[in-house]
Amino acid sequence: MAHRQPKPSDADPAAARAEKTCASCGRRIEWRAKWAKNWDSVKYCSAACRSHGVNTTDLQLEATIVTLLQARAHDSTICPSDAARTIGGEDWRDLMEPARRAARRMVARGELQITQGGVVVDPSTAKGAIRLRTPR
Known about the structure:
This protein is mainly alpha-helical. It is 35% helix and 7% strand.
């Protein structure tokens, strides 16, 4: 039995899908078959992100990141903990993941770069200590 040859109409539907980032956490949204009919309206990667959304603390963290970067030299970087400390005071550790989420959202908009060891990394897969800088 001969193998079926792919036709131009058999093109991978994944290639036609635009890459998306979650509106809440800033990570890349992985396409799921159950979203095939409404892919254009998908905004969140999970139910947890949909329920969290973007709150005022998240927006404050984004504004603080911008302010901290503007106060430094153009080629300087900051740590997400700097923004968390500025807003959270003694309870800054609770704001570390929200600060990382804010940074990922800003990367998705092209306002920021995330680096590790001086090299720009993918914010969806970066693990460990990160630094934030303005795009170069």
